[in-house]
Design a protein that fits this description.
alpha/beta; about 20% strand; 8-stranded mixed beta sheet
């Protein structure tokens, strides 16, 4: 069983990722560390707890993290996720508690207390919490098994600016710290997530699982799909974040290759861009495996099967 920490800013697609992880016996979700991103921190903390309730997993540990990026103004995405961050369902007061310990301290303590290379970090929001932990205690870099993260784009460059994907754009300095950390990274950019579309037929299949988790996800994704279909001209929303979790469970569904990835932090036009040396033209050292292909039908079949595990 792989021990993981999901660093998240829910977000409808975060909800899919969290539920998929909680429903999968191959994974032990040691905790959720929460970051401001799609909506401000108070809402992302509440949303994470709501998701745990809906999954029937109120015992899941949820830790509050960074309220703002390392540098520059805070960026949010209510335009895509709604004012609550989880529009499509009614907001409620969750019973899953918010832990008192700060997310950064939880990350550090957990990585230090477990054997080296036994904790996988799964950031699916801005990378602020991970960068703060690495900066506060650089020695943990050698103890992290890997970082499997959603963010960036190359052939499909950006979704919040022409050049930048939201998670990276929301805190480019944090992303730079993470990509230069030396920790093994597997990156799930827009190039792969836009191949995993929650179209109407697939949402109906999610709904047909017929439990509280699947019904809530179907309603969230119906809302989320309206914005994305209008923006991209596709039938349904790209499920960005759960690609990370699906890869941990079934890596044969995905393919990619090792590349050098650098983060643009200075340019007015391209701040937050992930500069992926896909063709190996720079001579810079490879620092990430960049995933660009997925078996979408296999991904959704896995999701349907696992959602049935949630009461």
């Amino acid at each position: 069983m792989k021990k993981i920490i999901i660093d998240t800013d829910p977000g409808q697609d975060d909800a899919v990722a969290i539920m998929l992880a909680l429903a999968s016996p191959e994974l032990e979700v040691v905790g959720l560390t929460i970051v401001a991103g799609n909506v401000p921190l108070d809402l992302t903390c509440r949303n994470a707890r709501m998701i745990c309730d809906l999954a029937g997993k109120p015992e899941t540990k949820v830790y509050p993290g960074a309220k703002k990026p390392l540098n520059g103004p805070q960026v949010t995405a209510e335009h895509a996720h709604g004012n609550s961050g989880l529009d499509g369902i009614d907001v409620f007061d969750p019973i899953t508690p918010l832990q008192e310990k700060d997310a950064i301290d939880f990350l550090l303590n957990t990585i230090e207390e477990h054997p080296p290379n036994s904790i996988t970090l799964c950031p699916i929001g801005p990378l602020t919490n991970i960068a703060l932990a690495i900066t506060k205690q650089p020695a943990i870099k050698t103890r992290i098994a890997e970082i499997a993260m959603m963010g960036g784009g190359y052939f499909i460059q950006g979704n919040v600016t022409p050049s930048a994907e939201f998670n990276i754009f929301a805190d480019p300095e944090a992303a730079e710290i993470v990509f230069r950390s030396g920790v093994p990274i597997t990156m799930f950019p827009l190039d792969v997530t836009h191949k995993v579309l929650a179209n109407k037929k697939r949402i109906e299949c999610i709904k047909s699982v017929n439990n509280s988790a699947s019904m809530a996800l179907a309603n969230m994704l119906s809302f989320y799909g309206k914005y994305n279909s209008k923006k991209y001209g596709e039938d349904g929303a790209p499920l960005h974040d759960p690609t990370v979790i699906a890869w941990l469970i079934a890596p044969s569904l995905f393919s990619g290759k090792a590349c050098n990835v650098e983060i643009e932090v200075n340019s007015y036009l391209t701040r937050g861009a992930t500069v992926v040396d896909w063709w190996g033209v720079t001579g810079r050292k490879e620092n990430a495996t960049v995933i660009n292909e997925v078996n979408a039908d296999g991904f959704f079949q896995l999701l349907y099967e696992r959602l049935a595990n949630l009461s």
